[in-house]
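Schema walk-through. Below, the input block comes first and the output block second. Nothing else is stored per chain. Lengths vary across the set, and this one has 226 residues.
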Amino acid sequence: MKKLLTLSLLSLSVYSVSDGHPEGAFNTLFVKAADVDRYVTYMKNNPAVFEQTGVDVAGVCVTTSGQSYPGQMFVWNAFPSAEVAMDASTLYDPFKATSSFQRLREPMFTATFVPLKGFELDPGFERVWKVRLNDWKSYVAAMTKLEKAQQDAGHNVQIGVFAPIGGGTEAFHLRTIHKNGADAGRIIDEYLAGASWAPLWDEAQQYVDEVVEETVEQCQIIYSSE
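--- output ---
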């Protein structure tokens, strides 16, 4: 199987295979960090955990708006398939971490997420919606169409849709990825002003039964095996 997660200039691409279905998967650890910056720096300087699981690329997303609790963030680990990701999840138990890690964060829960559409992962300023869907395939198609329309309108944006595996009460994740907050805000301004692509967003809401949570996150890559 072709390796679909390729790191180049700190940009990770998840490509779609010939039948249109993306591959790849992300193991995630959601935590409450006592000191977010210190925790992130510690992981950057101590890559042994990432090396232990054989992850291709790892990073963090820190919630900066809409937090459910102080220090809300998660660590993500990218793998070429769900098969590899779920096998890797058995190689490290974050709830039995060393005392150094235990002092820095409180683990909340883990989950594996699979992407439902191809996208280029170039971490930055990201808006995230946790949504309960009544037709995920139609929703993914709608988001794919919206992404193209926004890009055609000149926006540098990527849209990802992810399904949780073993995520407890977790919902689907919709993630819009921007270079910075200004880019994200510009899309909001255009939507409110009646952008040509705005009806695509409105029409997609028929597939959403509930928005569980909406947040803003700052994401970055902190480890690469290459």
